[in-house]
């Protein structure tokens, strides 16, 4: 098992939810973490909060759906820290709509963040990992990359793609010392997924998780830490879903 001590990790969508919990979990393991997000205000607030606790973190603004922005993020990270050891492609968005009413614009938005974001983050991180002899990539997919959900056509498409992109990259770069995995969370309590925001729909979601509750962001972060530490695991889409897909 590899120690995460002094490893250089980038977490996209790191200002909130699962990304923030992952950034925190990495710092607790001694990693240096670049928190990246397109929301500058929350990103800077998180940077301040973690720095006050003694963590070695910095915030770099980037739009995961924009290739140049992601290329700049990787370049700036290398400028500051010299390398990239762990890339967590976590930024993601969702749009719920019946498919015959889904606009192409909304469809493209979801694909561009969730799917293209994984392409860009992987592409530029891999270039650096090839120079330093290896590294690891973890992509945040979803149970909805594994099973269908009515009204989640674009999200299903993007997360299904992420799971297979993960396998494709794992095979392509295994011999270069680069491991690539995905985590497939069940529904996780976040700013948007909670009883207050969702009302009765929330109770319906809970009922679909045999464990009887939704996940916590730190439970997904725990899985991302595992995928980063364990040197024999590559090409998997790890379900962390309270039994949702069992
Ligand atoms: P969140 O909304 O709490 O955090 C997402 C973060 O990504 C936000 O800080 C947001 O500003 C950032 N972001 C959005 N678009 C971006 C872009 N283009 N560039 C850079 N940053 C961007 O959401 P949460 O729940 O933590 O989601 C994280 C990942 O987990 C996403 O990929 C999501 O699809 C996935 N996921 C979430 C589940 C849930 O129930 N919350 C379940 C399964 C997967």
Automatic annotation (TrEMBL):
Keyword Membrane (UniProt): no
Gene3D superfamilies: NAD(P)-binding Rossmann-like Domain
SUPFAM superfamilies: NAD(P)-binding Rossmann-fold domains (SSF51735)
Keywords: Oxidoreductase
Keyword Oxidoreductase listed: yes
Top-level class of the enzyme under EC nomenclature: oxidoreductase
MF GO annotations: oxidoreductase activity
TM regions (residue ranges): none
E.C. number(s) listed in UniProt: 1.-.-.-
Lineage: superkingdom: Bacteria
InterPro entries according to UniProt: NAD(P)-bd_dom_sf, Sc_DH/Rdtase_CS, SDR_DHRS6-like, SDR_fam
Family to which this protein belongs: Belongs to the short-chain dehydrogenases/reductases (SDR) family.
NCBIfam families: PRK07231.1
Protein name as catalogued: SDR family oxidoreductase
């Amino acid at each position: 098992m590899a120690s995460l001590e002094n490893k250089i990790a980038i977490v996209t969508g790191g200002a909130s939810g699962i990304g923030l919990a992952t950034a925190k979990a990495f710092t607790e393991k001694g990693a240096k973490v670049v928190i990246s997000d397109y929301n500058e205000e929350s990103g800077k607030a998180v940077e301040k909060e973690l720095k006050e606790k003694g963590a070695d973190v910095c915030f770099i603004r980037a739009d995961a759906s924009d290739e140049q922005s992601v290329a700049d993020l990787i370049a700036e990270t290398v400028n500051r820290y010299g390398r990239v050891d762990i890339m967590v492609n976590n930024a993601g968005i969702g749009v719920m709509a019946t498919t015959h009413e889904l606009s192409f614009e909304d469809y493209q938005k979801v694909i561009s963040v969730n799917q293209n974001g994984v392409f860009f983050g992987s592409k530029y991180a891999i270039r650096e990992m090839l120079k330093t002899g290896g590294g690891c990539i973890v992509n945040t997919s979803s149970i909805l990359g594994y099973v269908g959900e009515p009204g989640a056509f674009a999200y299903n498409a993007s997360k299904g793609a992420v799971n297979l992109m993960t396998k494709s990259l794992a095979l392509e770069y295994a011999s270069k010392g680069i491991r690539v995995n995905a985590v497939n969370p069940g529904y996780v309590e976040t700013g948007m997924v909670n009883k207050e925001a969702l009302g009765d729909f929330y109770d319906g979601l809970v009922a679909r998780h045999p464990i009887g509750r939704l996940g916590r962001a730190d439970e997904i972060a725990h899985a991302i830490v595992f995928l980063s530490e364990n040197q024999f695991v590559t090409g998997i889409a790890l379900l962390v879903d309270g039994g949702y897909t069992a």
